[in-house]
Amino acid sequence: MPAQSRMKSWKHSMSHSNGVDPNHLRQRRAMAENLYTLANRHRENHNYVVAHALYGRALSVAQEIHTPENDGNVLVTRIRTDQQAVFEMLRSGESDLEKPPLEKAQKVGQ
């Protein structure tokens, strides 16, 4: 593709998103959603520290999504809510589920 055509195509895509490349936005959203899904899986498996870290990364990526519709705010809110829930679990001591089995068994045996 000649350079002039590529530039025209790029300008066309940029003009449809108020200066933001729509492909870049889709990639960012997909990355944030994937990190969020992975965090949820770790949370379900009681890996709260890992889940909290993944929620944090998902939040960082989601906050980089700037669209006129602001649909990224829904994702940001969802991530923050779940990250806060995991934080509360960690803070309340429910993270004992995350300890190695031997350490848990010793604690139970005492």
Brief synopsis:
This protein has 110 residues and is mainly alpha-helical. Helices cover 74% and strands 0% of the residues.
The pLDDT mean sits at 79
The percent range for helix content is over 70%
Overall CATH class: Mainly Alpha
Task: Determine the structural class based on helices, strands and strand pairing.
Answer: mainly alpha
Q: Write down the overall geometry.
A: elongated
**CATH architecture label name:** Up-down Bundle
What about the largest sheet? Answer: none
The strand count comes to: 0
Q: Number of helical runs? A: 5
Whole-number tally of structural domains: 1
What is the CATH topology assignment?
A: Methane Monooxygenase Hydroxylase, Chain G, domain 1
Computed CA radius of gyration, to the nearest angstrom: 20 Å
The N- and C-terminal alpha carbons lie at a distance of 72 Å
Strand content bin: under 5%
Features:
elongated, Methane Monooxygenase Hydroxylase, Chain G, domain 1, 5 helices, mainly alpha, 74% helix, 110 residues
